[in-house]
Amino acid sequence: MRFTTRSLSLAIFVLLFACSPNEQQKSISKSTQSNKVVPNQILVAEVEGMVCKMGCGGAIRKELVETKAVSRVEIDYQEGSQKQTIKVHFDTQLISETQIVRKLEKINNKQFKVYPIGTSEIESSSSGASSAPGVNMSETSFELPNLIGILSSFITE
Questions:
Q1: Backbone angles phi, psi at 121, to 5 degrees
Q2: Which of 20, 46, 90, 146: disulfide with 115, CB 3.0–4.6 Å?
Q3: What is the percentage of the chain residues whose pLDDT exceeds 70?
Q4: pTM for the whole thing?
Q5: Domain assignment of residue 60, yes or no
C-alpha cells in the first residue's frame, strides 16, 4: 500500500509540474496585464453598412482592440436598421476620435460609413478604471492554484 501511495504521489507531482507555466509564459502574462487600456472617453457613433452582428461586429472589435488604445466596443445591432449604434471606450492619450473613425471606415475595403454622434468622458473610480462592466479581450493568461501545497498537506498527514 505504501508503494502505491508513493507512486500516486509521484504521478500527481509530475502532472502538476508539467502543467505549470514556465518563466517565459509568466513574463508574457505579466506584460499582457501591464498593457491594459484605461479608457477615459466613450465615442458614440452610427455605422452604416453592417449586415450582421457577429461578422461585422467581430471585425470592428478586432480592428479597434488591436490599436491597444480601445478597451471595449459595444454594438447595439438592430436587425433591419440601416444604421447601427456603437460605443467605443478608448484612451485619448493613445488614439483620437478621428483616428477611430478613419480606422472603422477602412475595415473590409471601406464597407462601413461612420457618423460620429459625440463623445463623453468616463469618470474614473478610485482604481483608475471604468466602472462599466465589460469583457477584456486582450488578456489570455490562466493560472492554476498551488495544488502541490494542498496535496502535500494530505500526503504528510
A1: -80, 145
A2: 46
A3: 56
A4: 0.57
A5: yes
